[in-house]
Amino acid sequence: MVNFIEAQKPLLSRLMKMAGLRPIEIELEPGTTMHIWAPKHHVGKKGTTISPLEPTSAATAAKKSKSSKKRSPESKPNVVLIHGFAAEGNVTWQFNFGVLVSRYNLYIPDLMFFGGSSTASADRSPDFQAGCVAAALARLGVARCDVVGFSYGGMVAFKLAEARPDLVRSLCVSGSVVAMTDAVNREAMERLGAGSSAELLMPETLKGLKALLSISMYKKMWFPDRFYKDYLKVMFTNRKERMELLQGLLTSTMDAKIPVFQQKIMLLWGEEDKIFDIELAKKMKEQLGDNCFLHGIRKAGHLLHVERPCAYNRQLQRWLAYVNSPAGGDQAS
């Protein structure tokens, strides 16, 4: 019997290729490979696999572009979209990438144990995920970028910005926190009536998946049970490793510190987010200081980029235009 969720993937891949993106496998080190959708100018005669220490077409093209008056693909600003916990990169951003590809070089990675990315490393921290994203971007010749992160991907984005201010020019984060402390996790689980984040985010039954989607969206949507069954089979793979990723997120409230970020940060929030409510976003804005901005989207929950893609895309485009302008950005890109 055809799995409807699996069946849509070839169509989604085709749409992304029509938009000028290509899937690339990057072996960061033996045992660690990251799958990433990247602009097609990275794909050369050797195909879509980049082995360790292999020079990239982007690096070569960048050198040539310095002497060329014609605007090259490498001259466009780079934008990285980092997915959340319930789906890989292309599925997460399927309603958003299309409005960005003409103006920006888009990079959509699959984090480790999502989509086509895997590792033999025992490290399950968001710091490790951020390091893998940074390494993949370096192999593709990306020296400066704006990063967009959703939920779990937002936590990875914060780690990336903290560790690599030379790489990350700005952040746009939705439905996330700088660090998942014991206190934040406990408050969220109590409010949602869940025993643990694993119980909430890694459902094994139709009831559990329906509950997750119900609290993730402002407007309750009906889907046939067949949809839920297919989604469970396709999207919740690598269960053991993902459970470990959730454990790797938790940090002691006593040890947690808010980093001093050099970048401008936009918190783009669903005003009806039940997982990380907007009051938490307001508190986080105060903690992050004057370089942090908050914009709420009405009638949107945690999955605001899926639930209200037009409103989300409009605000994201405004933010990216601002940080890439002389007034809002820098001249280091």
From TrEMBL:
Residues 44-75 are annotated as: Disordered. InterPro entries: AB_hydrolase_1 (IPR000073), AB_hydrolase_fold (IPR029058), Meta-cleavage_hydrolase (IPR052370). It comes from the Eukaryota. SUPFAM superfamilies: alpha/beta-Hydrolases. Signal peptide: none annotated. Residues 77-191 form the AB hydrolase-1 domain. This is AB hydrolase-1 domain-containing protein. It comes from Setaria viridis (Green bristlegrass). The lineage of its organism: Eukaryota, Viridiplantae, Streptophyta, Embryophyta, Tracheophyta.
